[in-house]
Amino acid sequence: MMQYRAYLIGENGVFRSAEAFEAPSDSSAVDFAKRFTRLGKVEVWQLGRKIAVLDSEQLCPPLPEPSRPTLTRQ
């Protein structure tokens, strides 16, 4: 397991808070950090290495509802 941090980035580009966690790989760390995007933009770091920048869910338009099949009566 490797040590990672997910940094919540404020609108002014300054770190607002950080969450330290462990993950087995970079991709697992990114998947874990995605849960914080509901609060804003997130940067994922492993020591001094930036892994990813994740956009805020607030900036993303909502996904369309999946269409439901219509029931027909016979």
Summing up helix and strand content along with how strands pair, one would put the structural category as: mainly beta
Shape, principal axes of CA atoms: globular
* Largest beta sheet: strand ordering: 2-1-3-4
Count of domains: 1
Helix share bin: 10-25%
The percentage of residues in β strands lies in: 35-45%
Q: Return residue spans where pLDDT drops below 50 for at least 5 consecutive residues.
A: none
Averaged pLDDT: 84
Whole-number radius of gyration? Answer: 17 Å
Figure out the total of helices: 1
The helix-strand sequence is EEHEE
Distance between the termini: 57 Å
Q: Largest sheet, described in full?
A: 4 strands, antiparallel
The number of distinct β-strands equals 4
Question: Layout of helices and strands, plus pairs?
Answer:
Elements: E1 2-9, E2 15-23, H1 26-33, E3 41-46, E4 49-54
Antiparallel strand pairs: 1-2, 1-3, 3-4
Characterize this entry briefly.
This protein is mostly beta strands.
Task: Note down, in words, how this protein is organized.
This protein has one domain (2-57). It contains one helix and four strands, in the order ββαββ. It has one helix spanning 26-33, and strands at 2-9, 15-23, 41-46, 49-54. A hairpin with a 2-residue loop joins strand 3 and strand 4. The mean pLDDT is 84.
Q: What features would you highlight for this structure?
A:
74 residues, 4-stranded antiparallel β-sheet, 39% strand, 4 strands, mainly beta
